[in-house]
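Good morning,

Attaching, inline, the backbone tokens for the sequence recovery test we're adding to the shared suite. The designed sequence is right after.
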């Protein structure tokens, strides 16, 4: 698999401050770059200027973190968010439970694909070139979806670890030899 390369483009994580109830009006007032309009959306949209990660924060103590390109980068951004929430006056804020929900990675397979032939040969694919120029390849192990382009590039999504990106790319390479 040495000729297959990938790069994480986005990671989505769920963040839960168990038992916390947040006053979003007050919190939005203390977070720079926060947008909060409860008549439009029931949470705070927060994009810190010094981070690739952005957040949706809800009064229930739950949040979503998107935009980071590494789990470590996301965890750093979540740690910074936690500190900012505490500094806003939420003193008893617990350490958050954090779970990776999805990763998206670009993949370079180092070879071209005959996507029409692949579409005719496999049942777990979709290919509608008049709608979208890639073949949609669904895998069970690891559970992933790969958009496979004829030029040899792809997009892998639905995975929860970098290891699974590599495994998914390897499986596609094995299956479409």
């Amino acid at each position: 698999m040495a000729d297959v390369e990938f790069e994480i483009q986005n990671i989505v994580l769920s963040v839960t401050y168990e038992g916390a109830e947040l006053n979003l009006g007050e919190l939005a007032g203390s977070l720079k770059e926060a947008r909060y309009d409860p008549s439009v959306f029931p949470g705070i949209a927060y994009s810190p200027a010094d981070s690739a990660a952005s957040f949706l924060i809800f009064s229930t103590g739950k949040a979503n973190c998107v935009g980071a390109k590494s789990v470590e980068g996301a965890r750093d951004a979540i740690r910074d968010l936690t500190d900012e929430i505490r500094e806003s006056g939420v003193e008893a804020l617990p350490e958050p439970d954090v779970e990776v929900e999805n990763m998206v990675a670009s993949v370079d397979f180092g070879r071209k694909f005959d996507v029409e032939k692949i579409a005719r040969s496999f049942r777990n694919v979709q290919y509608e070139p008049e709608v979208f120029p890639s073949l949609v390849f669904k895998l069970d192990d690891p559970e992933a979806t790969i958009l496979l382009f004829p030029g040899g590039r792809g997009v892998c999504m639905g995975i929860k670890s970098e290891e699974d990106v590599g495994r998914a790319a390897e499986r596609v390479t094995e299956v479409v030899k």
